[in-house]
Specification:
Elements (H helix, E strand, L loop, with lengths): L14 H10 L5 H19 L5 E3 L7 H8 L12 H10 L9 E3 L6 E3 L2 E3 L9 H12 L4 E6 L1 H7 L1 E4 L2 H20 L6 E5 L21 H13 L3 E5 L6 H7 L6 E5 L10 H5 L4 E7 L9 H11 L8 E5 L18 H5 L4 H17 L3 H19 L6 H9 L9 H12 L5 E2 L9 H11 L5 H22 L3 E2 L11 H4 L2 E5 L6 E4 L2 E3 L3 E8 L5 H9 L4 E7 L1 H6 L2 E2 L5 H21 L4 E5 L14 H16 L7 E6 L8 H6 L4 E4 L10 H5 L5 E4 L12 H12 L8 E2 L10 H21 L1
Helix pairs in contact: 1-2, 11-13, 17-18, 22-23, 26-27
Bound molecules: glutamine (GLN) and zinc ion (ZN).
The site of zinc ion (ZN) has 7 residues, from loops.
């Protein structure tokens, strides 16, 4: 027994991805898609069959939030004339009758949900046939189902109010949500529903903002969950990713039957134990990490559960995953690439269910002869992992401990003078963010090289050809600072991870990022160190082709960390410092080779921000420290750039300043100069490259359009402080789009320079 909050739906071999993409392209029929979905659900329930229940409605064709919007009949006006899957996929992916709903990150994970749009004139006519049939499917196959449903407060809190007063819309949504629950309650007597309410882990941070006020109202929360219970629904309310103490207290006063809390990322949930003890609720104790891929230390977990059971009776505690297993890959069963010792330390979704069953059994019945072998195996593995020389490297630890370089040796004001005179770049210097289009040829080339079908020599020649063309083009149109185009990189984190010690890569460890898109995050299992230069050869080659400045291109330590599965036996900050020193070594090699500008991308800097205000300071402290460790080694005359893909800087502007990068390029193209104002307001003096056109769209911006954009920027910051560039890397675009766009960018700058 025991429980989880959801299972990965993409399939062991990404069957759902393939079926979806085939359906979208018109190759596969709706029927075929439904059949794949059905067989995936059956397979996943089978894996869950020994748990208390199997999860129903954790499955989705795209995302659970947009599913719920669809059930509730909350459709954007532009799609209201559509029905069924056509309407559903229009909301998720766009349609000829309008653009898709926005997508954004699910709390601090790398999963993205589709943001439902709510408006007052919608009729909120519910439609839950698909949920009903999934429930029936589970019953018919002999399973005990638990419905996974996003809670009303989380749904409303994460949706976008498009028109109408939030309070009024909330009433409408609430009433539709109750209609939905009426239908659900008819499915069974005492139908079990797990309501996910992660919004409550944000604490009261958002409670002041107008739109969300109504969902932080104690009376409303009480009333909603009491009414749910009145319908004869057995309700469990779960929060995850942090603690939810302020709200657990409210929830415990309602007539729900259980509460699910995350004890991995929400230490402070312990504060709620007394209250739970004094209620009649079941505690679903989230002790198996649903976001990481390491075997659990079951002996330690058992100790923790025994501790809790001194407060809450054992029969009211159920062992659970900390959140849905959506965030980890399916199973490690067919992994062949990973070193066997490291593999033995891994636990993906299927293996985690095994851990939950084992732990629940040990907790309820003791370590009986039946589980003894597996139990001892787990203890042994944990000991081995703690002492292994694969996970501990004294030399690396010493090197990090003895590092003395924490900041650039001269202040910015001095550095920039030196740089400006030595590098001699014009005002409004033009550059790009790094990558150029990843053509089908270049992708095939990398793949074939990886498979061993092309030898390294001819692979290198082809990469060089790409770089040659790329540099020639940049020279032709007259960009000021050039890049090599990143043709050798499949991914900005994987490329570095593959060359660093302490990283492993799975062959099938896919995790859903959004819709049918999956990522295979690197696994950081041991101490990290650079073994040899990672980019030097390519950058040197590129520089040899031109007299202009070639910008070295690296991924920053915080981004490498935030986009990987990180070991759980060392503080994240410590892992990040190790990565930072590896990047520092690379910077040193580049500058010694004569590279004068080096960009250290921190695309995921903001993504690592904690969910609760009280933890932000700590994160900022070590994240900034790590970026500075990575770049401190740069000589004063070497210019350090960084790049961040955001268009919201208000909250983090002080941290950006503290990174002490000489130049930062940012993603402002879609928000014009409004965003830039915050730089001016705080008196930001370092150089800034606001994106002047949106690379996410295939549109080619005209010269006059870019000129207008630049003029708007000049109203905010002086010309000496500005760089001109696109708003992100160009790898997803086609050369046909990139060439004219960049040419227009350079021409626009030339005209402006004449005018001012
Ligand atoms: N240098 C990287 C590129 O141009 C940066 C990508 C990113 O910011 N996501 O692709
Ligand atoms: Zn970017």
């Amino acid at each position: 027994m025991g429980s989880i909050l959801g299972f990965p739906r993409i399939g062991k071999n990404r069957e759902l991805k393939k079926a979806l993409e085939s359906f979208w392209s018109g190759r596969g029929s709706e029927n075929e898609l439904e059949n794949v979905a059905k067989s995936l659900r059956l397979e996943h329930w089978k894996i869950q069959s020994r748990l208390d229940n199997v999860c129903v409605n954790d499955f989705s064709f795209y995302d659970n939030l947009i599913d719920l919007a669809f059930y509730l009949g909350a459709k954007p006006k532009r799609f209201r004339h559509l029905d069924g899957l056509e309407c559903y996929f229009a909301m998720a992916r766009g349609h000829k009758s309008g653009v898709a709903c926005e997508m954004t990150k699910w709390f601090n994970t790398n999963y993205h949900y589709v943001v439902p749009e709510l408006s007052i004139d919608d009729d909120y006519k519910i439609n839950i046939e698909s949920l009903k049939s999934q429930y029936k499917e589970a019953k018919d196959n002999g399973y005990k189902p638990k419905i996974s449903l996003i809670g009303l407060f989380t749904f409303f809190g994460l949706s976008k109010v498009v028109d109408g007063k939030p309070q009024k819309i909330f009433q409408k949504v609430k009433s539709a949500y109750f209609d939905l629950l009426d239908e659900i309650s008819k499915l069974d007597s005492n139908v079990l529903v797990e309501f996910s309410e992660p919004i409550f882990v944000r604490g009261l941070n958002d409670s002041q903002s107008g739109d969300l006020k109504c969902i932080y109202d104690r009376n409303i929360i009480e009333c909603v969950y009491n009414n749910i219970a009145k319908k004869g629904i057995k309700a469990i309310v779960s929060t995850f990713f942090e603690h939810s103490s302020e709200f657990s207290e409210i929830l415990l006063k309602t007539d729900i039957c259980g509460i699910g809390l995350d004890f991995i990322y929400g230490e402070k949930n312990k504060q709620s134990l007394e209250n739970i003890a004094n209620s009649d609720k079941i505690l679903y104790a989230g002790v198996i990490d649903g976001r990481n891929i390491w075997i659990a230390n079951l002996a330690q977990k058992l100790e923790f559960l025994e501790e809790i059971s001194k407060i809450i009776p054992k029969d009211r505690i159920s062992v659970s995953s900390s959140c849905s297993l959506l965030h980890v890959p399916f199973s490690k069963e067919n992994e062949s690439k990973i070193d066997s010792e490291i593999l033995s330390y891994l636990s993906f979704a299927k293996e985690k269910i095994g851990e939950i069953l084992l732990l629940e059994s040990a907790f309820k019945n003791g370590v009986t002869s039946e589980i003894k072998e597996s139990w001892e195996k787990n203890i042994e593995l944990n000991q081995k992992r703690a002492n292994s020389n694969k996970t501990n490297n004294k030399e690396i630890r010493d090197r990090v401990a003895n590092n003395k370089l924490f900041a650039r040796s001269t202040p910015y004001e001095e550095r920039i003078k030196l740089q400006k005179s030595l590098l001699d770049y014009p005002i409004l210097a033009t550059t790009t963010i790094g990558s150029f289009p990843q053509t089908p040829e270049i992708r095939a080339l990398r793949l074939n090289h990886k498979k061993g079908e092309i030898n390294t020599e001819s692979y290198n020649e082809s990469i060089k050809d790409y770089i040659r063309d790329c540099v020639r083009f940049q020279e032709e149109i007259g960009l000021d600072v050039l890049v090599h185009g990143e043709p050798e990189r499949n991914d900005m984190v994987e490329y570095f991870g593959e060359q660093l010690m302490g990283f492993a890569f799975s062959s099938n460890g896919w995790v859903q990022s959004y819709g049918s898109r999956c990522v295979k995050p690197p696994i950081i299992y041991g101490d990290v160190e650079r073994l040899k230069p990672m980019t030097l050869e390519w950058i040197n080659f590129a520089q040899s082709l031109t007299k202009k400045i070639m910008k070295g291109m690296l991924t920053g330590p915080v981004t490498i960390l935030n986009w990987s599965f990180v070991r759980d036996d060392l503080a994240r900050s410590a892992v990040c410092e190790q990565i930072a020193l590896s990047i520092a070594s690379e910077i040193n090699d580049l500058q010694n080779a004569g590279i004068k500008i080096i960009q250290v991308d921190e695309a995921a800097f903001k993504e690592g921000y904690p969910l609760r205000k009280e933890n932000i300071e700590d994160y900022e402290l070590w994240a900034i420290k790590c970026f500075k460790i990575a770049t401190a080694i740069a000589k004063s005359e070497v210019q350090i750039h960084t790049h961040m893909c955001y268009s919201e800087f208000n909250d983090i502007i002080k941290s950006i300043e503290a990174l002490d990068a000489d130049v930062i390029s940012i993603e402002t193209a879609r928000s014009g100069n409004a965003l830039l104002k915050v730089f001016k307001e705080i008196g930001y003096v370092k150089e800034v490259g606001p994106g002047v056109y949106d690379i996410h769209s295939p549109r080619i911006p005209s010269v006059s359009e870019i000129k207008k954009q630049i003029k708007a920027l000049l109203e905010v910051l002086p010309k000496e402080q500005l760089w001109i560039n696109p708003d992100c890397g160009l790898k997803t675009r086609k050369y046909d789009e990139v060439k004219p766009s960049l040419k227009n960018l350079v021409d626009a700058v030339k005209e402006i320079r004449k005018e001012i």
